[in-house]
Amino acid sequence: MATVVMEQISRLFINVQQLRQIPRLLESAFPTLPCTVQDCDVPWVFREPHVLTGYRPLHQSWRYYWLTLFQRHNEAVNVWTHLAAALVILVKFQQLAETVDFLRDPHAQPLFIILLSSFTYLFFSALAHLLSAKSELSHYTFFFLDYVGVAVYQYGSALVHFYYAIEEEWYAAVRHFFLPAAAFLAWLSCAGCCYGKYMSHCLPKFVHKLFQVVPSALAYCLDISPVLHRIVACAGQGCADPAISYHRYQVLFFLVSAYFFAYPHPEKWFPGRCDFIGQGHQIFHVFLVLCTLTQIEAVKLDYAARRGLYERLHGDSTHDFSALFVFTACCSALTAFYMRNRVRAQIKDKEE
Fold first, then answer.
1. What residues form DSSP beta bridges with 53?
2. Mind listing the pLDDT tens digit for each residue in 226-236?
3. What are the contacts of 90-96 at 24+ separation with CB within 8 A?
């Protein structure tokens, strides 16, 4: 009996010794990454106001920047907030696919588009914050791609609000121009962000911010108008629609996120104290994710509960709405590609 016990203890000791080797094995599998550097060690285009350290060195291998997904740096929270949210969107799509026939139900196409556009902007944003530190051209390229994702999401939001959330009175007032205007403003938002980024070297900081904020603000005012009209109408009638609560939260979360996008708080109050966690852009990411998730919950409820209304209002026009989504995405992508070529030519002239 004593021999058996000793053998079991010996095996346990060996297993513990093997477990202790795991950190060394991981260290050999993931080589030590270069330390992060200060703002004075990177070109101005990579610097964020009041963020003094945590920058990644330039001109490393692509493998290095992929591995920084697991490194502590000043973009890590920005990467993980949107990457984790993108995975949540995939899970939600899988859950919805069990009950929603995306292929055969034409009225489910807007629901599919909001899930696709949400995943697109979240994934493109995560890529931008993860890979843009490689070079100046990479920085512009990935953030232009990020702006394409934003434009796609803006139109996707406008579409589901117009399709599922709208009331008959507001539909009668905006039906002839709502989606074309939403598509144009989504493209304008992408173009404004790309141009502001491209010209940031010779524009004051607040003017650069205006190119980003003003078109997006105009797009949001139009896109959210069906939801706001419905919230006001519901309050006046004293209705008990469960989707309204989610719509209210998505508006609140967006307004909070917009504040932190426009103003560099709290890092402006505590320079150097928020380099790794606590930046305003990180808070913006969190509240934008909350806005997107509550929006999707509201849209799910509207899709299930308001079929009689939106079938009567929209009829067979779903394919036209979807074609406009593809058109908006293509125009935004071409704009970003054009601006990238301008940046590449500018960098080449500077090097020569």
1. 38
2. 999 999 998 87
3. 90/119, 92/296, 93/119, 96/300
